[in-house]
Amino acid sequence: MSKIRREQLKEATLDCVDLHGVNGATISKISQHAGVSSGIVHHYFHNKTDLLEGSMASMEVRRLEAGILDNVTDFDVSMNPFQAGLGPFIDLEKEGYVGREALLEADQRVLLLGLKTADGVPAYQGEVFEDSTVVAHITAAAWSPTLECGIGYVRFREAADWIGRTLTVQTVDGGVTSCEIVALPFFDEGKKIPRGLV
Question: Which of 91, 138, 93 is nearest to 115 (CA)?
Fold first, then answer.
């Protein structure tokens, strides 16, 4: 229950910051928004700064769940946009832009995908194995309270039909667990939430 309550308070904090700004999001307003007393907030967080820092970490989880990529962390200059999963944003029919010829010749297979674990959180920069062979590494990972599982972005060394496969991933506790490779984003593929359609 305490983990769920902490996540509720973090969500309420983010909502209050959206509505009132950082300075206007007082402990009193956050507790009202969460439907709890301010004493409950102080039970889980020492002060407003502690609560804000915890809430910002929640933004990383939201970024991962939504399939929002971070330059350098998740992809870099060694990858082309297709390999980073950005192919849907490229208009190869349009002519006259810098780099078009290179994109026409580029490998269009995706190297950056998602993974889910039923138990455990994938380790940041942890390795992903097929049998005993390292095939990828984790670029970002977290526990998703929304999906109730560990999630992460996985960057493969070589393109293949990875989606739907079960592999093994290193976890933050130093162990390993099985994981399912999935397409990004983890949910809301039609982006209905940010458009207010849900």
Answer: 138
Rounded-to-integer distance, Cα 32 and Cα 176, Å: 41
Q: What are the pLDDT digits (tens) for 19-47? A: 888 888 888 998 898 899 988 888 888 88
Direct distance between the N- and C-terminal alpha carbons of the chain, in angstroms, rounded to an integer: 27
Residues of the chain with CATH 1.10.357.10: 2-66
Helix axes 2-24, 27-34, angle to 10 degrees: 130
CATH architecture entry for 110-182:
Beta Barrel (2.40)
At residue 44, the pLDDT reads 87
CA-based torsion, 128, 181, 188, 8: positive or negative:
negative
Q: What is the pLDDT of residue 71?
A: 87
Dist. CA 151–CA 115, nearest whole Å: 6
Beta-carbon count within 10 A of 110 CB:
19
CATH topology of domain 2-66: Tetracycline Repressor; domain 2 (1.10.357)
